[in-house]
């Protein structure tokens, strides 16, 4: 089994410094339901996932621009595995914005060497 970022035997305080190193103070994003969340809400969501024994595995990171990346990972809980993809914006080496990426052919469209996403509302930083 590959190593995971979040494991059930850990308390969130064990990974809080990693969380703070990963997410910008002005972080904005969407949860799995498409609702807007800030850094505090993201922290609460991750605390709940950790308490429920959710594991994050198989993290893949693909740069799509100078400050953009597509992040794909598996969430495993109670024998179920869900693959999630987020288009993220990076500022000061931290994630400042993350939008859930729809899987499928229309998720990203190539146009003249640039990638345009259906999440065109992503801020320029």
From TrEMBL:
This is Uncharacterized protein. It comes from Skeletonema marinoi. The lineage of its organism: Eukaryota, Sar, Stramenopiles, Ochrophyta, Bacillariophyta.
